[in-house]
């Protein structure tokens, strides 16, 4: 029997490799709940493996060299559970999300409070309010998820700083921190979103008043330019907030967009919030859905083209996809425009999540095959993209206290740990003050899609 020629052998190998890619790619039908739920599980399984491998000394919810990313992952998993019905991860999520609330149930544990920033704590607050809105089971003998979100809100509004720029939340908390002199979009946009979601869930006007206040300040600063609906990354107290860091990140747009959508729904369709939703939405489409990938695939344009996204930036798209889905549900007039963007992203994710034998996902959804990136953050982003489509299919509004009375908010006494807080603003409600410091790393790159100031937690 004659052997194969080199040409024949090469062709056979190519066919084999092509077959492997086809076999390992996810199957996603964007109008099928079962298809999306199964794809989400294929993505979540290796994500949870990465989670177990990267826990710091086995501490639940504490990942090596970061803290907030686990909170963002729990937020994503809760939303996935609520729309897919997959309960496999709930036990871990419930235990670890509560565990990391700390000894005072404020997501400001003394184990980490020496280096946490406002944006770090904020993500755990968003995870908690997501639990309330989805009806995620409460933990017996522990505060409600809404109460945990409320405590984050209370602590953060006490850090509202009017000593510079007439307001705003600083990026970091202590003067020793590299980002202390900056006020950035994710801290202010995140608190705005948390306030809006608490307002809608609890029907407590205090939260709505703060949402208005945060929006108004942000729009009066360089963070949001409402003439062209441009969201800057940061501005500097040292220059009286006249300058801005202009790198474009999906989650900066996403927090303000989501918060505006929740406020639109909370106010029963106030036209000013509709205008803000539409302005931010069109800008999000124009900035983060590049024609390079056909205009319907979400891209982190500041770092993806040169494959320079760090572990923080790798996760941004997943949050933004879910916040876009919230917008489509809460502001129905936007659904027709948002749906093809999220469906296109899910179809792209199916191709990109074709790495190795475990459906590992890459960084760039717009590429037809796995780009070689792997880790918890890219799996989490892909799961968020798939989950956003499950949210669209279900088209169910987030719950409120009326439909989830078990999640009623209660005051949490976190020992009035307030004496060291560097700011003086007073909250409307009883709150507990806290302070900490962190030396946060600034990342800069000087190229197209260069990276500037952004969160880098430890």
- Note the overall shape: globular
State the secondary-structure class.
Answer: mainly alpha
The level of helicity is 40-55%
Which second-level CATH architecture applies?
Alpha/alpha barrel
Give me the Rg, rounded: 22 Å
CATH topology: Glycosyltransferase
Indicate the CATH class. Mainly Alpha
The largest sheet has its strands arranged as: 1-4
**Individual helix count:** 13
Q: Could you give the count of β-strands?
A: 4
Largest sheet: 2 strands, antiparallel
Give, in order, the helices and strands.
HHHHHHEHHEEEHHHHH
What is the domain tally?
1
Mean pLDDT: 87
Written description of the protein model:
This protein is an all-alpha fold. The protein has a single domain (34-402), classed as Alpha/alpha barrel (Glycosyltransferase), CATH 1.50.10. The chain contains 13 helices and four strands. It has helices spanning 6-24, 33-53, 68-84, 90-99, 118-134, 145-157, 185-202, 205-220, 250-266, 271-288, 316-330, 335-352, 376-394; strands at residues 182-184, 224-225, 230-231, 234-236. A two-stranded antiparallel ribbon has the order 1-4. Strand 2 and strand 3 form a beta hairpin. Residues 398-426 are annotated as: Disordered.
Keywords summarizing the entry:
two-stranded antiparallel ribbon, Glycosyltransferase, 13 helices, 4 strands, mainly alpha, single chain, disordered C terminus, two-stranded antiparallel sheet
């Amino acid at each position: 029997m004659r052997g194969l020629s080199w040409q024949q052998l090469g062709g056979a190998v190519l066919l084999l490799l092509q077959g492997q890619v086809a076999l390992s790619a996810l199957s996603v039908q964007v109008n099928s709940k079962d298809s999306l739920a199964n794809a989400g599980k294929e993505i979540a399984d290796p994500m949870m493996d990465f989670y177990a491998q990267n826990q710091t000394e086995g501490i639940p919810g504490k990942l090596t060299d970061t803290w907030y990313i686990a909170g963002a992952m729990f937020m994503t998993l809760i939303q996935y559970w609520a729309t897919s019905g997959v309960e496999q991860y709930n036990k871990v999520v419930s235990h670890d999300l509560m565990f990391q609330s700390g000894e005072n149930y404020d997501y400001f544990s003394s184990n980490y409070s020496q280096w946490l920033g406002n944006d770090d704590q904020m993500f755990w607050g968003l995870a908690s309010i997501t639990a309330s809105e989805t009806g995620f089971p409460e933990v017996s003998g522990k505060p409600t998820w809404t109460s945990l979100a409320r405590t984050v809100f209370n602590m953060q509004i006490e850090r509202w700083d009017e000593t510079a720029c007439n307001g705003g939340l600083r990026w970091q908390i202590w003067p020793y921190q590299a980002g202390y002199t900056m006020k950035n979009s994710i801290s202010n946009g995140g608190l705005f979103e948390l306030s809006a979601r608490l307002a809608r869930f609890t029907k407590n006007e205090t939260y709505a008043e703060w949402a208005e206040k945060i929006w108004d300040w942000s729009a009066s600063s360089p963070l949001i330019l409402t003439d062209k609906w441009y969201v800057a990354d940061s501005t500097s107290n040292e220059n009286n907030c006249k300058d801005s860091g202009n790198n474009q990140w999906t989650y900066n747009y996403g927090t303000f967009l989501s918060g505006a959508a929740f406020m639109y729904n909370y106010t029963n369709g106030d036209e000013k919030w509709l205008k803000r939703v539409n302005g931010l939405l069109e800008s999000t489409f124009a900035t983060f859905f590049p024609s390079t990938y056909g205009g319907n695939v979400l891209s982190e344009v500041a770092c993806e083209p040169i494959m320079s996204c760090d572990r923080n930036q790798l996760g941004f798209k997943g949050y933004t996809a879910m916040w876009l889905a919230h917008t489509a549900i809460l502001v129905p007039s936007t659904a027709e425009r948002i749906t093809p963007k999220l469906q296109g992203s899910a179809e792209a994710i199916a191709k990109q999540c074709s790495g190795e034998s475990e459906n590992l996902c890459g960084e760039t959804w717009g590429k037809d095959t796995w780009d070689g990136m792997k880790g918890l953050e890219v799996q989490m982003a892909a799961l968020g993209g798939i989950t956003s489509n499950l949210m669209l299919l279900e088209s169910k509004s987030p719950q409120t206290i009326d439909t989830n009375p078990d999640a009623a908010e209660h005051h949490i006494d976190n020992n009035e740990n307030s004496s060291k807080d560097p700011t003086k603003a007073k909250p409307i409600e009883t709150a507990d003050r806290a302070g900490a410091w962190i030396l946060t790393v600034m990342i800069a790159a000087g190229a197209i899609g260069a990276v500037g100031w952004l969160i880098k937690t430890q």
